[in-house]
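Why do we care about 3D structure at all? Because function follows from shape, and shape follows, mostly, from sequence. That is the central idea of this module. The next example makes it concrete: a single protein chain, its amino acid sequence, and then its structure expressed as tokens.
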Amino acid sequence: MTVLVVLAINLVLSFAATHYVEKYASEMTGRKVTVGAVWINLLRFSVTINNLKIYEADSEEIFFSFDQFFVNASPLQYLFGKTVAASDVYLEAPNVTLIMKGDSLNFQDILQQFEGDTTQTSEPTEPIAYAIDDIQITDGAFKFVQASFNGSIAFKSIEFNCPEVSSENPLSTFTLSTSADSGGEVNVEGKFALDSLSYQVAVQSKAFTLDFLLPFVDKILYAKSIKGQVDMNMNLFGNLGTLEGASGTATLSDFVMTDTTGEASASCKKLEIVIDSLNALVGNYAIRKAEVVDPYLRFDLAPMGNNL
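And the structure:
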């Protein structure tokens, strides 16, 4: 009988939560938001959100969506240890599209929804202790569109894993893998310190193609096509939003850029750079090798201009 009562409470809470999340998310973002269902399991202290979609402002186009979000909460750790704790944080098939028009991005109106009165001051509060275990993102997708150039780059099959994020151990490890729609794979292994916002990452790319660059380069040069692929094995470090240093190898292979006539204007069989160390903070650079194989550049001068 007790189990039936709990199940009934779960159903009632889940029904109410579905409408609450949809309504609250719409109010918070100022956007249309739809939610397939929210399921609350009091026996496991878990929450599942299915098929959430956030739309573009005044549009039926989708800005952000995911198939499922799941989390196991640990309320007892907060009651007895004052620690916000969760485990098995799982996000399936998140999909986000960022669009830049001029200097603005398509989420700035959402940020404005969260802007408050900055003139008010509040009393300092003690830091909140937290412990979140086993964070996973599977089958994600990301697309960036530069509307002014009609250019874009898109990534699919995004997989992310982070074993632990904790206030007791602010240094977290993570792995990230993805592939580009235009071709190529990227794998990242790294460490991120939440207290200092510093990072160290090892980045590997394989056969990463350059086709996506054409709309951007075409605004500067007369280009009809850009071909080539990048293989990279680099170690990077810095602070969030800033690259401070790097080392490793980057290779550009079979690069060809054609002009509007379809003739090659620049090409090379291989361009390889080996960096022993690069530190932008102190201005130290140690490049062991820079090799160019079969470089080619054509410059045609005509009465009305040139091919570049």
